[in-house]
Amino acid sequence: LLVVLLVLLLVVLLVLLLVVLLVLLLVVLLVVSLVLLLVVLLMVSLVVLLVPLLVVLLVVLLVLLLVVLLVLLLVVLLVVLLVLLLVVLLVLLLVVLLVLLLVVLLVLLLVVLLVVSLVVLLVVSLVVLLVVS
What is the enclosing helix (H) or strand (E) of 57? Predict the structure, then answer.
């Protein structure tokens, strides 16, 4: 059971690592694409006029800011979810350990009762034999 829980923990950590790597890859791709877009827009606006350049720059910067904020929000949500999952797994582990402890205690109690009853039976039978003889 402990082995299964440890394997589950490892799987969860690997999934977390993969998700973080994917998010980082997405952020890098977004930044690269936005920089390329900015360069193209700069070239176009330099050809056309200087005022649209400033407007386009502001719009691109706002979009970049929004995208970064969204990605950060997603990362925070993923981390919170994974922490909750880990807490749930730990609680389950504790519950399983407590149940195992209770079962072991019950088995010990049963064994003690069995031994006591056998000793009492032996004593009673010895007394009966002595009285009969």
Answer: helix 51-132
